[in-house]
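User: I'm putting together notes for a lab meeting next week and I want to include a structural view of one of the chains we've been expressing. I don't have a solved structure, so I'd like a prediction I can at least talk through. The sequence is below, exactly as it appears in our construct file.
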Amino acid sequence: MNHLVVCGINYHFASLAIREQFCIPDSCIGHALEALKRFPHIKESAILSTCNRTEVYAVVDDVKAGMRDIESFFASVQRVGDHDALKPNFKLLRDDVVLHLLRVASGLDSMVLGEGQIMSQVKAAHQNAVERHTAGLTLDFIFKLALSCGKKVRSETSMGRRAVSVSSAAIELARTTLGPLKDKAVSIIGMGKMGQICVKTLLAEGGDGSVILLNRNSERIENFLKNKLNNREKIKSGFAFEESASIAAQSDLIIVSTSATSPVLTKAALARHRHDKSPEQLIVDISVPRNVDTEVATLPGVSLATADDLAEIVSRNLAERESLVSEAEQIVFDQLESYHNWQRSQLVVPTIAVLREKIEAIRLEQMAKTTSSGCPNQESSRFELETISRAIVNQILHHPTVQLKATKDYEILKQQAEALHTLFHLDPLAVGSSHGSSSFGSSSRNNRETREQARRQAAILSGALVQESTGVTTWQETLALETQEPR
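Assistant: Thanks for the context. Below is the predicted structure for the 487-residue chain, given as structure tokens.
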């Protein structure tokens, strides 16, 4: 039996110094997923790696063995040697995995409540897993459900209107430290999504200050400047990335957000360019791994803040945030119920279909024997026999169908499905399989035709259930759904 798990680290349980050791760059996610494929107990996998978390979502065939595989994976991607000291410390199973992912995509589990960038990060994690063929039926469904949940939260509650990003939280932290920023000299090192949000937020304030853009790839700055920007006269660009230290040394505020794996701003480089007239300055490093040497904080007049310092913003206005959370949590739990319905359908639909297939095949086989044994073969008699036999089949299957559909508890449902498979000697792998072994034994042409006809009839008869549970409406699509091999 397969189990849904998540294992990793996040800001709830690990400091930035630990999180940055586990961070997997975007360019390496594909290779990491390929590595996860090779572990024997991991059947599906997806990786969500952001500044606040690195989590592996997986379907495993054994919980303990699967968790060991994921821990081995984390040990292999760390950039430090002390694997015993640094282990993933966040683990959830089954429904708790789904609930966690729903809350993550909705911005409810972000360091800054309602942070908007997480949606694109969850989407990227899903796309990477799909492209690398590591997301099977289960992970594909829960990630799509999480993205749908995130959209609902942002469109149907006040969370969307009040959402803030890590970038805007960095600006708020700067305002608290430096006062109004509209007339300050600001340097933005790194023009990824977070850097661009910082620039737009600063430009919206107006004033006579400057916003200097620095990026290793100048093309990214040029593309950003093609956008419609307010107060764009404040922007200064065209500098070489190697000038970062000298420009930063004369800025009031420096925000650093690059994808570099080592510091882009060091104490020595900054010290060379600072002098007696250099301003008191704040450096906010929101990169993970950190891109600013922590020793710069020892320079006179220099303050350094990192992503973990943004937690101070999270603690503000608790009463207001709690009211926002309650709206969003209701949507999250509604979506969790959608997962439960889907999960039940994965047992109900195939079980009813295979049961109907077997009984329908028996009916058709007996009909064929009755016809070939010399019984009346008039059209009216055959039609009447067909009608009566179908009615009997429907009556026999009515109660099991209703009972399975009505059962809400997944474990009880699983027991009921297993009991049906045992009592009726059902082989779920035989559903929709035209080349597999048959429950009916004969390999003659007539029997093959009988089984194929039974399969079509069973799919049609179970159509109402399938439509209600999965949205599938045709028997061809039903068979396509049921013949998907489990990963």
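A couple of points you could mention at the meeting. The chain is about 55% helix and 10% strand. Residues 318-372 form the longest helix (55 residues).

User: Perfect, that's what I needed.
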